[in-house]
Amino acid sequence: MLHGSCHCGAVRIEVARRPRSLTQCTCSICRRYGAQWAYYSRKTATISCNPDDVTAYVWGDKTLEFFHCNRCGCLTHYESVDKEDDSRIAVNARMISPADMADVKLRLFDGAETWKYLDRA
Ligand SMILES: [Zn+2]
Asked: How many angstroms does the Cα of residue 111 sit away from the middle of ligand 1?
């Protein structure tokens, strides 16, 4: 079990294991956030916070919600607007200690153009 949180601690993150890789994406929103995504199922990642402590940003085709802390501003995770038991949750691994992510490969995903990874797995 790995733990993380936003800077002020209002949003707490718990994930079952280290991710196989982290994804840095070039799309219009991810490049601005500077997030490094670790993908989990809703069963293997838990976000704990008071609902009033976060804001969800929804844009474009309105399928994803990007959550940030209202107090410290950190972007903590995104997930689909339609939440199902097996739907994916993307945790911003920047909220987790760098020591816990030290050996995890960082991959660059071209979300802006080709929708492909720009490296080999
Ligand atoms: Zn915070």
From this structure: 27
pLDDT tens-digit readout, 22-78: 999 999 999 999 999 999 999 999 999 999 999 999 998 899 999 999 999 999 999
Q: On the CB side of 42, how many CA atoms lie within 13 Å of its CA? A: 11
List, in sequence order, every residue forming a beta bridge with 77; answer none if it has no partner: 67, 91
**What pTM was computed for the model?**
0.93
- Ligand 1 center from residue 48 Cα (angstroms): 12
Q: Identify any residues that bridge with 23 across adjacent strands, giving them in sequence order.
A: 37, 107
- Pairing of the two strands 45-48 and 105-109: unpaired
Ligand 1: distance of its center to the CA of 99 in Å? 20
Q: What ranges do the domains of the chain cover?
A: 2-109
Q: How far is Cα 57 from Cα 53, in angstroms, rounded to an integer?
A: 13
Ligand 1 centroid, distance to 51 Cα (angstroms): 12
Q: How far is CA 78 from the centre of its chain?
A: 5
Q: What is the CATH number of domain 2-109?
A: 2.170.150.70
Q: How far is the CA of 13 from the centre of ligand 1 (A)?
A: 12
